[in-house]
Specification:
The protein is an alpha/beta fold. It is built from 29 helices and 8 strands. The protein folds into 2 domains: 28-40 and 58-492, Amino acid/polyamine transporter I; 505-670, no CATH class. The protein has helices at 32-35, 37-42, 54-64, 67-70, 76-82, 91-116, 128-134, 137-140, 149-177, 179-183, 191-204, 210-238, 249-258, 260-269, 276-281, 283-286, 288-316, 333-366, 389-406, 409-415, 418-437, 443-465, 468-503, 507-512, 514-517, 538-547, 597-608, 636-647, 652-656; strands at residues 376-377, 386-387, 520-530, 549-561, 573-577, 582-589, 617-626, 663-670. It is a multi-pass membrane protein. Belongs to the HAK/KUP transporter (TC 2.A.72) family.
Length: 672
Amino acid sequence: MNDRASAEPPPGALPAPPGATQRAVTRADDGPTQHGAARRDADATAPHGHHGGKAALALAALGVVFGDIGTSPLYALKECVSGTHGVPPTPDNVLGLLSLLFWSLMMVVTVKYVTFITRADNDGEGGILALLALVPERLRASGTQGVGWLAGLVVLGAALLYGDGVITPAISVLSAMEGLEVATTALKPFVVPLTCAILVGLFSVQRWGTARVGKVFGPIMVLWFTALAALGLVFIARNPAVLAALSPVHAARFFAAHGLHGVAILGSVVLVITGGEALYADMGHFGRGPIRLAWYAIALPALVLNYFGQGALLLQTPEAAANPFFAMVPKGPLTYALVALAAMATVIASQALISGAYSLTHQAIQLGYLPRTQVRHTSSEAAGQIYIPLTNWALAAGCLALVLIFQQSSRLAAAYGIAVTGTMGITSIVFFIVMRHTWRAPLAKALPLLILFLSFDLPFFGANLIKFLDGGYVPAVIAAVLFIMMVIWKRGRAILAERFTRAAPSVSAFVRELDAKCRARVPGTAVFLSSRAGKTPYALTHHLRHNKVLHETVVILTVVTEHVPRVADRERLDVTSLDKGVHQVVVRSGFMQSTDVPALLRRAAATHGLPIDFADVAYYLGRETILATDRGRMGRITETIFAVMARNAGAVPDYFRLPPERVVEIGVQVDL
């Protein structure tokens, strides 16, 4: 036993997994009155915790949410006509490609995500893990193994989104810097160093918070989308025949003419819709209403106009296929100005995936799929705006590595797509389950939507599999590593909690036997953290068995993470006073809330009469040393990985905001 807080996450110091108690603040299977259309129609503008005008939030959302999809004109059509699987820019091909680009934007981003998927918010929070939390408990249940098939599918989708988050900043900034080569080949050696410098700067400013970053980025993105629309209009006016591509007939003719090669080209077309999943993951930062306003009023019209403008340029000047976007302005000062604006826009493009990665990580931690790490809340008004240093710099390292390895955006484009299309397909499946089992939608309504969504998701995913050996393995490897880590962590925690729950006596039994086991009571308060409500933490039984003394006031505290983003203040505390100075406190937290244990105990003292002497209180935590032998249920290799993750988890006092000088650890060796 020592007085230093360890980084090891003991069961007694971890929040109980969702569903650990009988009472839940919000159940996913409560039906549409809880999470369904009735509530959405009543409040379709902003989620919990957002303040400010809708227009102001839409402007900030434009700078964070739509940066990724807003910079796709830099490389999407270029890859279709000059990439590895590109086709010559003949009139029929250009019209066919524009038709594919337009209908991909309309059906995947506008219909699927903006119209339908964003309705599946969990009290304002979006993203694939928030979507999982809407699934009824009976379908999420995984027994003692930690991860069921549906949860495993969602975890895979989350892992794929991380892979997308590593590639997006790299390809976006690199493609903008390559505009310098259009102006003059003499600047080619500076492209990669400038890209790396910009990426370092981008990740360095993340600590300022999403709101401050969005306020700076929003006006720049308005200028960017205005430039996109203006350039597009100029060339459409010169060749209005390009508007014929609005008809899906040209897309059908393109596939009829190119056969299997037409399927392969979808691997480049998908670059138009990357950012759709990030749009959903970022919903908690700004709200559904502002995001929809920014999309329909600014982002969508500007993107369509620019793509059609590039197409009109190619119809007029096919040799511009090497870089049609930068060919829209004459070489010289205008090129440099466009490169500068594109550089700023691509820095912003990265923000959507970076902010989404923060939300994803926080949700994964609270739901028990990742170890604790430091989470900083960067806004006192918007609860969803957070900054996670470890996630930030891990993404930064990955982006820099990709830029240095691939060197060119066209090579990185080959690595793009598998991750995002895989996540999109998984989102469609889980959304169908939410519609059927949470919102009670009839099969006749839910199934056509699933078929519609998958009719785009699966061809895009299949087309990107063709690029696997050309670089598509990069996000797949990243996702595989993260998926394995998340599953091992979840399963290890489940087995660990099961072992201690089985061995631990109930609190009522502990109180009955207390007088026989305790020789003396000393002044002060001892707070023991327990992973299961109603069970005595092993730190308490271990302490009493060896020391034979106990404080006059004993608080057994359990933190339960519910499957909702935030639990209302009035429902966060359950306090039960037992006999012999023992009290049970259950703290309920949403998966987007942090838990300040001392502050919550003070509230319990004020509102529930909990008799705590805060001048003389000690917090007792359990700590396990994982042995990792062949005798355990996990096996040596997986248990070793779990042990390494546990040792490197964030410190318990930091996670629960405990004063380190008042923390006492009690350790035990465990073989899982």
